[in-house]
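Example record

The entry below shows one chain as it appears in the dataset: sequence first, then structure tokens.
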Amino acid sequence: MSSVTVVILTYNEALHLERAILSVQPFASQIIVVDSFSKDDTTAIAERCGAIVLQNPFVNQSVQFNWALDNAPITGDWILRLDADEIIEPDLAGNIRAQLPALASDVVGVNFKRKHVFMNRWVRFGGRYPLLMLRLWRRGHGRVEDRWMDEHVVVSGGCTVTFEGGFADHNLNDLSYFTDKHNKYATREAIEVLNHRYGLFTKDQGLTAASASGQAALKRFIKEKVYNRIPFTLSALLYFLWRYVFQLGFLDGRSGLVYHFLQGYWYRFLVGAKVMELETAVAHLHSKQEIIEELSRLTGHKLN
């Protein structure tokens, strides 16, 4: 059997972590938790479940995960990226265990079909399933894009395949947590939009159909080349209608309406509003360095 190291980033994930670890134990040879100095029982739970625990100050997801790739004592032939609120379901765990050793040597990455569970219901429509995400790769062939938001694992030196089976994003927190998290996401995505417009710092262009999934690469292209060029007061509404009507999001019921409205309209509108606010705040500045320093002050992120 091929050895697999699972890497999980955490901050106050006592609610989810044991569930995540238990879901990968059937195939994982090593589990590493990289914690951002949690204030709850996250690290104690990780240690009790047999994980190696490292701690490192958090900047963003990509910086933290790439720090893990560079500094963690990874021994697996393969590396799996898992969020603490995600689950590898038994059928996918079985496929990883059975199919991974049989892969050809030129296969360096594996995509999973992620499903989103919201208010304890699977969001099946609105273009939300399946979301193809590259989460498993040969050690030495993958990295996480250097981006403030919407970062993906990208691979090089070979091709990718897709495994069937359940891979669920199932956060157990309430709507207050959901909206607070997406408010923070919106700030980070606004930074990405402004970087794309003004070239403030190096832009990672690693995501392609060959390096990850064709679906992810296409969505990135549409977002950057089309969506972000439309006024947000119109684009957010059009995106919601596309998901809810044309992609049949209305079939997800009342909880689906809550999800598609918040994630497909409110969040997109909030990103646009934050871009407008931040653009106005730096309009009087002339150099890129001045803009970066002001955005760092306004957002609380160390963009340098």
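Notes for this example: The chain has nine helices and twelve strands. The longest helix spans residues 253-282.
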